[in-house]
Amino acid sequence: MTRLCPTLAAVLITLAWPAAASARVVEKIAALVGDDIILHSEVEDRAAPMLAEIAAIANPTEREARGNAIRREVLERLVQDQLLAQQATELKLTVSSDEIDRAIEQIKRDYGLDDTQLKDELRKQGLTMATYRQNTKKEILKYRVLNIAVGSKINVGDSEVQSYYDRHMKSANVQVRASHIFIAIPEDADNATVLDREKLAKSLLARAQKGEEFAKLAREYSEDSGTRNEGGDLGFIGRDILPKPLEELVFSMRVGDVRGPVRADRGFHVIKLVDKRTKDAKPFAEVQDEIRSRLRQREMERQTKIYLGDLRKKILVDIRL
What we know:
By secondary structure, the protein is of the alpha+beta class. It is built from ten helices and ten strands. Strands 1-5-4-10 form a four-stranded antiparallel β-sheet. A four-stranded antiparallel β-sheet has the order 7-6-9-8. Strands 2-3 form a two-stranded antiparallel sheet.
């Protein structure tokens, strides 16, 4: 991010051609976050790998809609990152070089990489080690801000863990494996935009029901960055994991069914039921730590959304993309 200097408030980063030329290239602002700016080029750079994945979409209207959705998704993440970076500065948080080293070593262990393999992976993504270290530092700072503002206030009691076990794991329970295509609805979208998004979801449903490969459609069109690269695979899930409208649908489906679109949370979902199984119950002592971690993560995600929403009310966020 670039600090917005008052002298640049009117004309931002104007790059003049040599004296003989009359044209000027002006860098566009994608968003203002307090006194900081997010540049259009930053959005394009971050979105580039995902935009490359949709280049094969034949329909130009669909390709443009998907590209715009990717840019909105990327911009929202950049805004959130900047809000958290500002909080890290306000809290005077720092990250040492040794801490960055330890974080990178942990990443290497998690993914089974040595130094050469890590550098090769970074090179494929157009990153230098210096940039990767800087990005790692930002991630550590974000984690610390959220841990102070949100995580430190979350306490999952023994009674909550026991109650979850009694409801969901004490007896044999049904689990489903589903895949989805998520079509997001932008914040403050008007009715025409919502209808357009629903139309796209319905067209993808029709294509999947006619036999097109669901995973391929998900990789091309789904706007859920967490599952898109896996063809929309949500893995095996039990009840109380999905939003209620989705849960009701998916647990009523037969294996192989493709249904939707269902509106839930921030958009429309097209769902395919891949598998269904009955899982035997495990003893409480064996799963209580897993349950506590799951409940804490769920509450962390909920409280983080509230926290980021509160920050946006306190700090001016002006989206211009």
